[in-house]
């Protein structure tokens, strides 16, 4: 548990410095565009929270030999592999000029580096016909690289509200850690605990009232590390079903795939074009926005945070059973199908304004949320 504790303390302290020095770097780090199509925040704060998480992960991995007899080399190698994806995200956070294509290429580079250095290459997906193709190394490498980079971007896709991406990532890392403990994988367990602690140190600064955002760098880092840990579990342990990574991460994964389908097929627009039709955006605009004083700054922050709670609950529908049935392809397939049905029903209900009353939030007196002072 020292991995968790050191990760938490390191992240919390670095983010404390970032938040309270915002006046010095705010011209670069703050997101002042509050009216973009995917923007749902009431005021500008630094969007470099990923730096705190990265620093905590590095410090914990370097210091690990103090309390652990195992080698920390694989942990550090994994973090080195994450550098291209993380750096491209931080560059976008600071300059707002790094194209989606460049960031995708960097995510692909990170995934390929992990394939080479950690042998993190999927050789099975537990489908007999396709498993024959997975024995062909170039195909297996390509499949793994695109899968990892896809999930790396998926975490960034759902990063739009206070605590949404970070807490969903925490739930996924908790599941990974549980499965790793169950199969006796020290490497995966230690990295999962490190990331769980580092993200836990970030959440108090982001939820319910944000003083810092995760940013592209933080989203790419957490998405990449989670994806690689899931790949390693499948590669190193035949008892872990290849369906486990899909089932436990189905919320961000399906959100990404559905967004691509909605934009490209239904609307005839580029797959990477921004829009305001993500499930989390619709929940914010049509479900929690019905509370009183909807134009009030405090209510805006409260609605933003409440939106995340809906998606946390939705993600648990797949994460909980996936964790306890990680070796059962049949159960995991059922989890995936069940989640997709619930997601599409929920999305359709919101789009057609047929939202059940039991989904609507209870109207309560709002809690005062002050603008963070630096």
From TrEMBL:
EC annotation from Swiss-Prot or TrEMBL: 2.7.8.33
GO molecular function: UDP-N-acetylglucosamine-undecaprenyl-phosphate N-acetylglucosaminephosphotransferase activity
This protein's UniProt keywords: Cell membrane, Membrane, Transferase, Transmembrane, Transmembrane helix
Entry's transmembrane regions: 6-28, 48-67, 73-90, 102-121, 133-154, 161-180, 186-205, 217-236, 242-261, 307-325, 331-353
Membrane topology term: Multi-pass membrane protein
Name of one Pfam family that matches: Glycos_transf_4
InterPro entries per UniProt: Glycosyl_transferase_4
Transmembrane helix in keyword set: yes
Subcellular location: Cell membrane
Stretches assigned to coiled coil: none
The keyword Transferase appears for this protein: yes
Name by which UniProt lists this protein: Undecaprenyl-phosphate alpha-N-acetylglucosaminyl 1-phosphate transferase
High-level lineage: Bacteria, Pseudomonadati, Pseudomonadota, Betaproteobacteria, Burkholderiales
